[in-house]
């Protein structure tokens, strides 16, 4: 795909993301997305057959961008350092990309999530997280508990922290974050 086409597609994604955050899934028609992205409505249909397809592809786009950010680490880091690094990078990404965070949260609470589940995809990055936890379990560093237990504690705490900061219930202080990830680490590491 050439750069100009990629830029148009990315502009459509970014406009859709912004407008959905402002107006919701149903309050964001394709014509509004096209106007905001400064493209013709037909251009959107060149890339996506329907609004549903656009939303599903936007979810994939957001997950890929997030995973590019959080899994960008030095492979020589010891496991514990990578555990802390990935969690902190996720929190940082969501705090600086709030539209992405709120879109993903809204997506999981919508019928669109059911469509993605039917496709039996890897949820765009969940495989990387699975392999990361599997490495920790196989090497005896973290407890041998189910992936879904680990992801609930790890990602659930990160998203909860982002919400607490966003809602103004707590300030974004490095000490609080360090305490939180240390508590998570102490709960999952092999004793």
Automatic annotation (TrEMBL):
Record's keyword annotation contains RNA-binding: no
DNA-binding annotation, residue ranges on this chain: 29-48
InterPro entries (UniProt xref): Homeodomain-like_sf, HTH-type_Tx_Regulator, HTH_TetR, TetR-like_HI_0893_C
Keywords: DNA-binding
SUPFAM superfamilies in alphabetical order: Homeodomain-like
Positions in coiled-coil regions: none
Protein's UniProt keywords contain DNA-binding: yes
Domain (HTH tetR-type) ranges: 6-66
UniProt-recorded Gene Ontology molecular function terms: DNA binding
Name recorded for this polypeptide: TetR/AcrR family transcriptional regulator
Upper taxonomic lineage: Bacteria, Pseudomonadati, Bacteroidota, Sphingobacteriia, Sphingobacteriales
């Amino acid at each position: 795909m050439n750069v100009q086409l990629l830029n148009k597609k990315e502009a459509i994604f970014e406009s859709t993301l912004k407008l959905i955050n402002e107006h919701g899934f149903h309050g964001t028609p394709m014509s509004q997305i096209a106007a905001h992205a400064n493209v013709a409505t037909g251009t959107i249909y060149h890339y996506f057959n329907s609004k549903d397809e656009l939303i599903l592809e936007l979810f994939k786009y957001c997950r890929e961008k997030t995973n590019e950010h959080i899994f960008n680490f030095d492979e020589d880091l010891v496991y514990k350092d990578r555990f802390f690094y990935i969690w902190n990078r996720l929190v940082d990404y969501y705090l600086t990309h709030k539209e992405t965070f709120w879109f993903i949260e809204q997506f999981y609470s919508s019928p669109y999530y059911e469509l993605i589940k039917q496709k039996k995809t890897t949820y765009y990055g969940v495989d990387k997280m699975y392999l990361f936890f599997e490495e920790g379990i196989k090497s005896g560093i973290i407890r041998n508990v189910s992936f879904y237990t680990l992801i609930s504690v790890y990602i659930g705490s990160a998203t909860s922290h982002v919400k607490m900061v966003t809602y103004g219930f707590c300030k974004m202080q490095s000490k609080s974050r360090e305490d939180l990830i240390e508590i998570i680490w102490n709960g999952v590491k092999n004793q």
